[in-house]
Amino acid sequence: MEIWRPPISASQRGKLISAGYTSLSSLSSISSSDLARELKVSESEALDILKVVSHSRGLEISNASCSIVEGAQNAWDMLHDEESLMHLTTSSADLDNILGGGIHCKEVTEIGGVPGIGKTQLGIQITVNVQIPHDFGGLGGKAIYIDTEGSFMVERAFQIAEACIEDMSEYNRFLRKDFQACEIRMQPKDILENIFYFRICSYTEQIALINYFDKFISEHKDVKVVVVDSVTFHFRQDFDDMALRTRVLSGMALKLMKLAKKFSLAVVLLNQVTTKHTEGSFQLALALGDSWSHTCTNRIVLYWNGNERYAYIDKSPSLRSASAAYSVTARGIRNSSSSCKRIKMM
Predict the structure, then answer these.
(1) How does pLDDT run along the chain (346 residues), one tens digit per residue?
(2) Which residues pair with 304 in a beta bridge?
């Protein structure tokens, strides 16, 4: 059960979220004195909070006991479900190839790299491509874009949407030679209307929003991808207590994994890079540390090799390590070409 459900005050709920307590289970083993110190409240108030949480948690356990038993699934059914899941194309065939068909639904995929490598471009491309209709091999869904840095460019999204529709029209003309062509009714305006954009200005807003998504996506069941750009920003700015940061990040990652599984959608987390001291030298590494590196299902590192952009699968339980070149063009993410340079898009 989420922390917003128990009958406590809004200020108490805000303090709990800021301290990293986003679920009732995260409060199951803490003492009232420790909670009072972390929330900066009196011990009696902390004890009252724990009493309310304990009561709510007792109801949660009694109500969920049957569903836990009934929720078992055999491995054969799991294999069938995985084989039937569709993938979300990146618009680069080479990149899709090393990803096993594209971004996986029901999984959390982290994509990180240096500034200017195309992380936001790829995030925007994904929010457009998720809307490709089923007749064209797409998911026919909607997208959520969480912007923590203010880097989302609606003009760029419109440009990529236009290119996507042109690509579908070209595919339609190809099909018309031998098969019944599919009618294309989409316009760039329709694609932009199906991107739910959230501008986040603090880590508490970020956590609260992700906690709210269970309700939001239940009301918008056609949402098939959630993009966070970037997952890192506020957690590098607002934290001095690294243990608290680790706990907050772990809770957020667990919530995103549950959303991906429950609603059969893809979660894409864009990450920044930092320097890491290894074997006497400093090297670039994805931000948020080693603990965070284990929270995502797949990890993709974007990097420069000369004038070409490359994507490397750094971690995945189902994909082998591999790399593929890609380019950022005026039409969006595409296969690499020999003329690929660091060009200005807009």
Answers:
(1) 566 677 888 788 878 877 777 777 777 778 888 888 888 888 888 888 888 888 776 655 455 444 444 567 788 877 877 777 789 999 999 999 999 999 999 999 999 999 999 999 999 999 999 999 988 889 999 999 999 999 999 999 999 999 999 999 887 777 655 555 566 778 999 999 999 999 999 999 999 999 999 999 999 989 999 999 999 898 877 677 888 888 888 889 999 999 999 999 999 999 998 877 677 777 788 888 777 878 899 999 999 999 999 999 999 998 999 999 999 999 999 999 854 444 333 3
(2) 309
